């Protein structure tokens, strides 16, 4: 393994660093994007019961805001529920924007790794090929084994860059799709709360 890293030249440590960054982001986002942590089950039902019972005071509203991303969105709307439907929706949308920003944390970095890693590999290959042709200029083409070995070493960085870039791209697409699904769920729950407060309709929680 060390021989492969050494053969790739100065570009290989950079590619390895990219792989470490991608792996770290994958682990962190896998934990952070747990749907039950973002939108705890039955949270809206509990909030609605507290609201109907007159138990949703400032302290509980603060606890709701800091309890989960969905709680932060609901708390923003509830804090402005007396200002009318439009103001409440604007408050929810503003809070949702902050939540989405947090959900997308590090995804730009992951996308950058996916884009840069193959370019780094190509750079390493070009540098290696320049070295090979320099050797040809100095020694000629008589030593075919040496030339083949030099070309093989030059291509190592391209392979390494692709090995890092492909999983990073897959992870980026996976997390993007997962966030889209989570955001749709958050929107649906928020709309339920707004409708329940301002349309007078009964909800499934009015039991």
Describe the structure.
It is rod-shaped, with a radius of gyration of 27 Å. It is mainly α and 207 residues long. Helix content is 82%, strand content 0%. It has nine helices and no strands. The protein has one domain. The mean pLDDT is 85. It has helices at 2-7, 11-32, 35-38, 43-52, 58-67, 69-79, 85-103, 107-139, 144-198. The termini are far apart.
How big a fraction of the residues is strand? under 5%
Q: How far apart lie the N and C ends?
A: 65 Å
- Most strands sheet: none
Tell me how many strands there are: 0
Keywords:
single chain, 207 residues, mainly alpha, 9 helices, 82% helix, rod-shaped
Can you lay out the helices and strands and say which pair or pack?
Elements: H1 2-7, H2 11-32, H3 35-38, H4 43-52, H5 58-67, H6 69-79, H7 85-103, H8 107-139, H9 144-198
Helix pairs in contact: 2-8, 2-9, 5-6, 6-7, 6-9, 7-9, 8-9
Task: Summarize it.
This protein is mainly alpha-helical and 207 residues long. The chain is built from 9 helices and no strands. It has one domain.
């Amino acid at each position: 393994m060390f021989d492969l890293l050494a053969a790739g030249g100065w570009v290989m440590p950079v590619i390895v660093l990219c792989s470490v960054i991608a792996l770290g982001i994958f682990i962190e986002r896998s934990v952070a994007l747990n749907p039950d942590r973002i939108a705890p089950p039955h949270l809206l039902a509990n909030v609605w019961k507290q609201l109907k019972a007159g138990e949703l005071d400032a302290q509980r509203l603060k606890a709701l805001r800091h309890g989960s991303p969905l709680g932060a969105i609901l708390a923003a709307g509830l804090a402005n529920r007396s200002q009318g439907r439009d103001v409440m929706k604007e408050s929810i949308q503003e809070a949702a924007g902050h939540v989405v920003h947090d959900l997308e944390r590090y995804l730009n970095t992951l996308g950058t790794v996916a884009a840069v890693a193959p370019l780094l590999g190509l750079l390493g290959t070009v540098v290696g090929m320049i070295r090979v042709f320099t050797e040809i200029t100095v020694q000629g083409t008589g030593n075919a084994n040496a030339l083949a070995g030099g070309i093989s070493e030059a291509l190592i960085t391209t392979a390494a860059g692709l090995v890092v870039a492909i999983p990073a791209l897959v992870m980026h697409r996976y997390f993007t799709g997962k966030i889209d699904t989570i955001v749709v769920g958050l929107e649906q729950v928020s709309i339920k709360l707004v409708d329940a407060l301002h349309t007078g309709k009964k909800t499934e929680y009015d039991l």
